[in-house]
Amino acid sequence: MALHKLLVDDFYDDTYKLIAIHCGLEDYRLAYLLNQSLGLRLQRKTEDLDMQYLKASYSIFEWNNVSQYVTWNLVSNVCKKEEDSLYSTGLFQTNEKVIKTLNLVPEYKKVDYFIKISDEIQNVNEKLILNKLQNIPHIITSYTVNPTKLKSKDHLIF
């Protein structure tokens, strides 16, 4: 009798495009500028993307374009949180606070935000989007990222 194995990874075949953005803007300002320049309707989700095991949360904006079968997500890659210092100097213990920076995608620590475009029909033109992003004066740079080569691509499932 033949034995058949089914691998769970075979079922997950979500095709999406990923664009990295470097900028110093707050998340709501960037979402507003993206809505203006790309003609989107990004809105902040009621709950942030919460990574329980990292104890970090990342802001996320979403727009589901039903007519074109495209879901747009703007997600922050940086979470800054304040923690107690873990070291003591000499005889006295200090209670200093340290700001710790956690990244959603650790391979790209310098990236501030990611745009995730989940399109079923594959009708989104990445070059046109990148050109429009480069025309926004507050964005330093933007480029495409291959999501299949990411070690932490599971963090982008939402």
From TrEMBL:
Cross-referenced InterPro entries, in alphabetical order? IPExxxVDY_fam
Superkingdom of the organism of origin: Bacteria
Kindly give the NCBIfam families that the UniProt entry links to this protein: IPExxxVDY
Q: Which organism is it from?
A: Winogradskyella poriferorum
- The identity of this protein, by name, is IPExxxVDY family protein
